[in-house]
Design brief:
By secondary structure, the protein is an alpha/beta fold. It has a single domain, classed as Alpha-Beta Complex (Spore Coat Polysaccharide Biosynthesis Protein SpsA, Chain A). The protein contains ten helices and 13 strands. The strands form three sheets. A five-stranded mixed barrel has the order 8-11-9-10-12. The chain has a two-stranded antiparallel ribbon with strand order 2-3. Strands 7-13 form a two-stranded antiparallel ribbon. A hairpin with a 2-residue loop joins strand 9 and strand 10. The longest helix has 16 residues. The N and C termini lie far apart (about 45 Å). It binds uridine 5'-triphosphate. The site of uridine 5'-triphosphate has 20 residues, from helix 5.
């Protein structure tokens, strides 16, 4: 396992997206577009930019639009071929040719940890990345957030979580870590707590939706009891690895938008609109 390179990216995309109802009643949250591109496509493009070529998507009921999106629509291709509109398909065609997609379903929504465990069948015994597509990341200055994380993984060969500083009052929305700085922007994690009250937060460093995980996490999740909110939390499972010094938190370069919330979604839309029209 130790020397295996990260090739696969897991996208847990089975959640209900209740904060976006009614939009998410029949459309998966991950298919909501920022400008013209669905959130999930941004995530897949980030994974490709980091050198990954195998996308493993954990879906649920009512998520079939995701599979159709990453496939060829022969009717559309036929209609649009040779017309002035053909360029609208360039980006998605490019994505489809650069990687493969496989899917599995999370039968019951028992939390992010459980969704990741549901993906085991697609990942197997190798290190893998996890992207939560509703956390949209961008780094104008250089490498994508996942590319930066792969670099950290290559050096330390252990699980990596991306963190950013948050206002303490928001700690109850995130997994929050504490640890010891081992290099600039790198912290060896010694404690992590899922959605703590501000008074109980071990720091102001919150985990965002980017992870590199080693496959030993699957056995640990299997043993993890439901935690906060009655869900099986990836934070609780990772704490077991952290106790052995096997989790590093990385303060990434770039910006992250919480597109699972309306405010973050609007912010991301404005940001990408400005970026594209400049
Ligand atoms: P969220 O809690 O942000 O997503 O989970 P949600 O449940 O879809 O949204 P709300 O709170 O109801 O509005 C973070 C990520 O984990 C996935 C979600 O799809 C999302 O990408 N997830 C969560 C699962 O795949 N399965 C679960 O059981 C829970």
């Amino acid at each position: 396992m130790k020397n295996k390179r990260v090739r696969k990216c897991l996208f847990p995309a089975a959640g209900y997206g209740t904060r976006f109802l009614p939009a998410t009643k029949a459309i998966p949250k991950e298919m909501l577009p920022v400008l013209t591109k669905p959130l999930l496509q941004y995530g897949v493009e980030e994974a490709i930019s980091a050198g990954l070529d195998t996308m493993a998507i954990v879906t649920g009921r009512g998520k079939r639009a995701i599979e159709d999106h990453f496939d060829i629509s022969y009717e559309l291709e036929h209609q649009i071929k040779g017309t002035s509109k053909e360029h609208y398909l360039t980006e998605i065609r490019d994505v489809i040719t650069k990687c493969t997609f496989s899917y599995t379903r999370q039968i019951e929504m028992k939390g992010l940890g459980h969704a990741i465990l549901s993906g085991e069948t697609l990942i197997g015994d190798e290190p893998f990345a996890v992207i939560l597509a509703d956390d949209l990341c961008d780094n104008e200055e250089g490498d994508s957030v996942l590319t930066q994380m792969i670099e950290v993984y290559e050096k330390y060969k252990c699980s990596i979580v991306a963190v950013e500083e948050i206002p303490l009052k928001d700690s109850n929305k995130y997994g929050v870590i504490a640890g010891v700085e081992i290099e600039e922007s790198l912290i060896r994690v010694i404690n992590m707590v899922e959605k703590p009250d501000p008074k109980d937060a071990p720091s102001n460093l919150a985990i965002i939706g980017r992870y590199i995980l080693t496959p030993d996490i699957f056995d640990i999740i299997r043993e993890t009891k439901p935690g906060k909110g009655g869900e099986i939390q990836i934070t609780d499972a990772l704490l077991e690895l952290a106790k052995e010094g096997k989790v590093i938190a990385y303060k990434f370069k770039g910006r992250r938008f919480d597109c699972g919330s309306v405010d973050g979604f609007v912010e991301a839309t404005n940001y990408f609109y400005k970026k594209e029209t400049l």
